[in-house]
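fyi for ur records
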Amino acid sequence: MQTNQYGEVVLDEQDLCDLVLQGRGLESLKHVIVNPAVDLESLIHVLEDPGALVTWTFPADNSQSVPDYDALQQQNWHMPEQYRDMDIAEHVLALCQTDAELQRAGHELMLYQERGLFDLLRYLTYLVDVMRDNQVIWGVGRGSSVASYVLYLLGVHRINSMFYDLDIGEFLR
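which gave:
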């Protein structure tokens, strides 16, 4: 597998065959990016009915700038409606237990909102819930993200930035 300049995984013929032969089935191929050099007709014998379930897409137009591409992709968060429609600020503030926590979380939420990152917080909430439900273990925390008390409240990391007096400015530069 390779990635293109936008960070998308681009599959070649071998990758597609591997996915099917590993038992992932056609469901895992609903939306994949296929290297334009792949002769899709030659793969028909591997796939049971490619037209029924598979939507083939090709790599993004290289004339599009990376920031424009990112902005377009951020409009398409793939998560259940309950997360997409949730009031993330209300959810985060409900996790606070003291006035100091409310103040810190409120301040950070304003910074996230100014940067248009509420959808990211909703998605991270969904991701953490899925990992918990499936008993997936993830790291304690990494890099400047541990400076965010909101991410701590959501369970993205386990470093209490208020306890260690970490400045949110280290994360949201």
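The mean pLDDT is 82. thats all i got for now
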